[in-house]
Input
Amino acid sequence: MTTILFGIKDTKSNLSFTKAQVFPNQLFLLLNPLFNDKEIMIKKLCINGNLNELLNISSEKSTKKHRIFSDKDEKQSKKLKLTASTSVSTFTSIKSFDKKLGKNVRKYEKNIKSKDIGYIIPLNIDDNITYLKKSRNISNYYKICNDNNNFIYQVINNELYIIVSILKNFFNTNHKQELLDNLSKNLNCVKKNFKNEIEDLFNKKNKRHTYTLYGGCNTMQGHPNYAIPTKDEKYCHIAEFIQNYLTNESCNFEDLTSKDLYDNFRNSIPLNQMVDIKKCHFDKILKSENRFKFYLYLKDQLFPLIIKLESLVAKLIQCSFPELYSLFNIDIPNIKTNLSFFKSFAINFGLQEEANSDLIRQGATDPHKDQNDCLYAFYAVVVFGDFEGGDLVLSEIGLVIEIKYGHIILLRSSLLEHFNTKVLKGKRDSIVFYLRKFIYNEI
Output
């Protein structure tokens, strides 16, 4: 729960924060999407990390024979001795961290070179984003589909800058995997026990069967002592208050009235801890006991696990983009949140229905850019569910990326248009962490 002040950060982020100091030996040079409005394919590759040799051919004419260098081409992969990755990797060198972190970073960077795969777009995308076409058929996109960690770069002055990374084995230790599985279990529990509440509260006519709730802080101006939480956190706060009220007063849920509860709530809050919660919010929660239990479950069970997850993702950002992490990892007056680095998150629930004759699946998200996110920062998506389809599509650069359970996507979401294809089988959920530009003086 929070209030927002503008201009709290003195320095704005910039493109240099995304520069790659280390990159994989296995590099694929893609066709320039600015000059190829039809099919995107591999133009050339190297397996020795010789970036200069790879970029020197960027002006040569591409030939169809380079299409054999597809991730799906098992024969070619064996010929090139491409090895599946089993280690999480990071992107940039770290020069001024403690010894333990520095040792881990050096290990991660070593894994980047030997085990990960890089895809290079020979274009300054930041400068040319308005000229990139989005009209090519998706069948002509290049699909990235392998078991390695993947990094997608733009080229600026013959140097690589990260625009997307897909980390596929971040949860490769017991405690990380336990947290991931526990979150997955709780997400499934919410969908099983509170499906009707989710549909009623988050637009019952949703044709895509995907429902989103928000946590963290909301970007609004207000009095320094007047907290303005997100709508869902308001309901969680009310559910907690009701639970304490039921315990203290030894009464039943059916006996509660919104007027009495709201009066008691207002009288219990000191003037210096006021919260933007009104009687109408109590009316909403008291409509059904299951709705009350839904928000209490979020408050007591799901949100604490998300806070733990955010802490891990924040450490990933710290290792991957130390300058960016240092700039955004600040205390903001009047912001109240248990998140360590990101100040906001969203949970996307997939609630598809099935029928024998006509399967109604979780729909694709519309192509969009997250214009409220910081331009030179990354949003982080953690993927949940056992599903087929639901690929990540980057229409402006002609890429489709296969994603699965446990993958982490780091994407410059304000720069690149993105969406997901339809989930063809199973269910897909995700938790998204992001940095809103309004609270970081990035407008």
